[in-house]
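Design a sequence for this backbone.
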């Protein structure tokens, strides 16, 4: 379809282009924030504040996803460490929040702070693609989430 060469047609084409780009960006944001059925659920034993999971990324895998529910203003610490017996370590962790934001880094403590909102959180564990030889990459992840009453003093505004 060829648009006439006038200001209104040009303006309409720009609006349509902006609308398509906006819709694409929104769908990307939603797909990264919404829990997928392939995510593994992090289980906390009754009364426990920590959950530990170990895993291995096979040579053809770059990431694993986990999900858990948490409330706004709960204090959380997420730590990644190497898994003994694996030639590489999956040391990248990114926490995807229900509000669409994310936070993370490479290795060690990848998140420490007060969770911003109530809902389903997704945790992405991945290999560092800049420092991998494509071998099996193991990891051990410890997620600690304090109950609301124990988080109050840590999460109160300054």
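Sequence:
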């Amino acid at each position: 379809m060829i648009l006439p060469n006038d200001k209104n047609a040009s303006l309409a084409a720009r609006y349509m282009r902006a609308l398509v780009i906006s819709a694409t960006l929104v769908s990307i944001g939603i797909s990264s924030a919404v829990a997928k059925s392939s995510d593994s659920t992090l289980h906390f034993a009754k009364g426990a504040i920590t959950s530990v999971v170990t895993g291995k990324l096979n040579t053809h895998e770059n990431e694993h996803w986990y999900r858990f529910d948490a409330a706004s203003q709960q204090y959380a610490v997420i730590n990644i460490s190497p898994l003994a017996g694996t030639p590489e370590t999956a040391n990248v962790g990114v926490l995807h929040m229900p509000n669409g934001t994310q936070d993370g880094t490479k290795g060690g403590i990848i998140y420490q702070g007060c969770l911003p909102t109530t809902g389903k959180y997704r945790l992405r564990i991945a290999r560092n693609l800049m420092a991998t030889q494509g071998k099996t990459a193991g990891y051990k992840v410890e997620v600690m989430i304090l109950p609301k009453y124990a988080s109050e003093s840590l999460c109160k505004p300054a």
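The first helix runs from residue 7 to 33.
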